[in-house]
Amino acid sequence: MANYSRRIINDYCVLDTETTGLSAYYDEIIEVGILRVRNNIIVDQYSQLIHPNNLIDDFITSLTGITNEMIENMPRIEEVKADILSFIGEDVIIGHNTSFDIRFLEESFGESLSNTYMDTMQFARKLYPELKHHRLSDMSDYLSLSTNEHRSLADCITTKELYDAVKAKMESDNLRIEDLWVNGKRSRK
Question: Which of 86, 173, 176, 180 has its CB surrounded by the most CB atoms within 10 Å?
Fold first, then answer.
């Protein structure tokens, strides 16, 4: 699997997938969204609906709005593998619960990604311990970010805004990465 890291950076790709369920082994990707960010600005985007081997059930359609009709003439994941890997390149991948998305990509591609990745959920848990949950929708509501829609590109935008909010809070509170993770616990300054 890709290498986990915690850093403050300005150049990266934000990744999100929509899937038919929670298991990378039994379920499938139905949408991939990626934003390329340079100097904190979105400079490019990739969005693709994916045709899975099995039908999308009503629950996933109600959650994502993605219907079987929408994906009928879309490519299979293996047909866009090269495009996805090329778009991400060697960039650090940022996401919310990133290991979920990476597990699905690696399972679908049949190979491991070598990219470093970061998880905004881990930052959110450290910086906003007062919240009971740190799902993207919770963070979006709490910080008044873009609407979390369970669509890949929209969720990428929300995740980028969350990472921006994390960086701003760390700066305003004069926190460094080391201040958040000391022996796995939040340091008390």
Answer: 180
Secondary element (H or E) of residue 118: strand 116-119
The answer to whether the beta carbons of residues 186 and 129 sit under 8 Å apart is yes
- H/E element holding 120? helix 120-127
DSSP H/E element including 34: strand 29-38
pLDDT in tens, 102-141: 999 999 999 999 999 999 999 999 999 999 999 999 999 9
Strands 41-49 and 93-95: unpaired
162 three-class SS: helix
Distant-in-sequence contacts of 119-125, Cβ < 8 A, 24+ apart: 119/4, 119/94, 119/95, 120/94, 120/95, 120/96, 120/159, 120/162, 120/163, 120/166, 121/96, 121/97, 122/6, 123/6, 123/163, 123/166, 123/180, 124/162, 124/166
Contacts of residue 32, defined as CB under 8 A and 6 or more positions apart, other chains included, come to 15, 16, 17, 46, 47, 48, 50, 77, 80, 84, 105, 152
The pLDDT of 91-104, averaged and rounded, is 97
Tell me the per-residue pLDDT of 44-53, one tens digit each, with 9 for 90 and over: 999 999 999 9
- Would you say residue 188 has pLDDT above 80? no
